[in-house]
UniProtKB/TrEMBL annotation:
Stretches assigned to the AB hydrolase-1 domain: 30-288
Coiled-coil ranges (or none): none
Phylogenetic lineage: Bacteria, Bacillati, Actinomycetota, Actinomycetes, Micromonosporales
GO terms for MF: hydrolase activity
Keyword entries, A-Z: Hydrolase
Keyword Signal: no
Regions that span the bilayer: none
Stated name of the protein: Alpha/beta hydrolase
One Pfam family, short name: Abhydrolase_6
Organism the protein comes from: Micromonospora solifontis
Keyword set includes Signal: no
Amino acid sequence: MTEQLEVRLPDGVRLHVEATGPVDAEVTAILLHGWTLDGRSWHRQLADLRSRYGDRVRVVAYDARGHGRSSCMALRTATLAQLGDDLAAVLDEIAPAGRIVLAGHSMGGMTVMEYAHRHPGHFAARVAGLVFVATTAEGHTHTAYGLSPRIARLIRLAETTGAGVLARCGSWRPPRALLRALRPSIRWMLFGDRCDPADIRLVTSAVAHASLRSIGGFRASIGAQHRLDTLAALGDLPAAALVGDRDRLTPPPCAESIAAALPTTELTVCPGAGHMLMMERPDEVNAALAAVLEQTLAAPAPAPERPIAS
């Protein structure tokens, strides 16, 4: 049975959280969604993990601040640094003990890296495995939208300018009529060769629930983040990275650099797939999650935890 929970953060933001499995499960898997999306983007993985592990694994997905059913926030907090702090707070409240596997898609993967950077003691004490799905540790370094470098620079300039305008629109949501008109563009940007119409509808619904402040506000932080050094310091954690070879936002070089920085990473490149791998290639994503969870479950239980220092 799925629990509907809420985490209230120190600045008053309320995060919508959904969890299945017992609090004292052997491992807790935390699934973090991408920019403008929400926890529903992991629905195929949620179903697979429940079926595969039952009560052995607690599965948690939450909507980031300004996204989905979580509340809006002050513009100054629309940063990856804040999302890293939010993740630490969610772990303390929702999964206060036991081993953690973190899986992040796009902005969610960047959130995991920011958490590791800002809270190294907390991370080292809790995290036992990582799964990176269509994400990057290098901001927009490799983002070319599948176009020529000159056109990509023009698109990035327009995108950055537009993001600044949207960021000042507060808690308003994108008009649904506009999003329906933009479905062909969403399909081109986010998906590869094959796309289920139901997935387009889900993504469009998620964008419709994201505040304009979050759509615009996080753009600068996402484009500027560089955390390869953070990954290189994580040691021998079981890890996986997946990318589609048609991904226009985080193309294969993004995942390749993650795997190079964290050599324990099992790299999977999905032919014909775009940015939404959890929907486009659920079997591959499920298998990667299972592989990291199996290694975590097979490892000896850690010694009793001491107080965590961030």
